[in-house]
Amino acid sequence: MKYFLSLLMLVVAMSLTAQNSHQSMTETCDQEGYTLKMKVSKNKADQLQRTYNALTGQPADRKISGVATHEGPSGTMIELNTRKNSLLISYTGTDEEALKVAKALGASARKSFGTPPLPPPPPPPPGINK
User: Fold this and answer.
1) pLDDT at residue number 49
2) Angle 96-112/45-56 helices, nearest 10 degrees?
3) SS3 33
4) Nearest-CA neighbor of 115 among 47, 30, 69, 16?
5) How confident is the model at residue 16, as a pLDDT?
6) Smallest Cα–Cα separation from 44: which of 17, 73, 23, 19?
7) Dihedral sign from CA coordinates of 23, 28, 34, 35
8) Are 34 and 99 in contact (CB under 8 A)?
9) Residue 77 to residues 23, 33, 52, 89: CA-CA distances in angstroms?
10) If you ran DSSP here, which 8-state letter would residue 80 be given?
11) Where does the chain have alpha helices with state H?
12) Residues 97-116: pLDDT tens digits?
């Protein structure tokens, strides 16, 4: 009985630690710009800082506390908030080249977390022409 109880406690403890990690991501792209919002749990905060450092060209071991904002030459803004464990990549405008840069930064951030690329949008329903 003790063996069964200790085995049960071990399984419960392992499943609780496995649930200790989460990640959410929202990505939008339209005629007015591009936005990628990433939020991760505390155990991935270092990876989030390394991603921000890589995207902004900072040294990989640079530690940031609080909010850090970087605006690239194309107008793309990258913001890291270490208190909320979030990363924001945004571009507002209509320049196609700057939009491509923002999308490339978003793809790089997704790749660093192993998140697959977003699927293409579904085709319009039959009978609706663009």
Assistant:
1) 93
2) 150
3) strand
4) 47
5) 54
6) 23
7) negative
8) yes
9) 21, 11, 11, 6
10) E
11) 2-18, 45-56, 96-112
12) 999 999 999 999 989 888 77
| Distance in angstroms (rounded) separating the CA atoms of residues 99 and 62 | 28
CA 103 from centroid of its chain's CA atoms = 12
Q: What is the pTM of this model?
A: 0.73
Instruction: Name the one residue in this structure whose structure tokens are 């977003």.
Output: 118
- Which of 101, 113, 99 is CA-nearest to residue 38? 113
φ and ψ at residue 34, rounded to 5 degrees: -140, 140
How far apart (Å, rounded) are the C-alpha atoms in residues 70 and 110? Answer: 18
Tokens of 15: 């499943």
d(CA 100, CA 1): 62
Q: Mean pLDDT for the chain?
A: 84
pLDDT of residue 105: 92
Question: pLDDT tens for residues 6-57?
Answer: 766 766 666 655 555 677 888 888 888 899 999 998 888 899 999 999 999 9
